[in-house]
Amino acid sequence: MLEIRVLTQKPDMEPLYPLIRQLSPGVPEERYVHFLDDMLAHGYRMAAVFEDGACIGLSGFWVSTKIYSGRYMELDNVVIDAAHRSRGIGKMLYDFLLDIALQEGCEIIMLDAYLENEKAHAFYEREGFVKRGYHFLNRIK
Question: Model pTM?
């Protein structure tokens, strides 16, 4: 039986690092745990999919406002456990997040996806996302 819950507390998010590592293997656990405090202080939440008590998928998210988009939900670190992909879990998770976005008055949902993650690109496009621009990074430290 699948269950989706919204997590808002660091102790609930810390144990989910193995899924984060599947998406971003270069992020050490200490960095993930450390950054959760700052992220939570800025309204960060997670939607997590559980099966028999084990987390098999998650997406972080924020709700905020930008001039060009109005009120929006930004998805962050969307990942389904490799052993559970292609079972409709990503669709279930996205639909859950879409409902929250609508309830919270969002006009748009946005996200970043790694260039090499082409399977995710195809999923997002099936869900109505369009590629709108480039996300530029300039590591200064």
Answer: 0.92
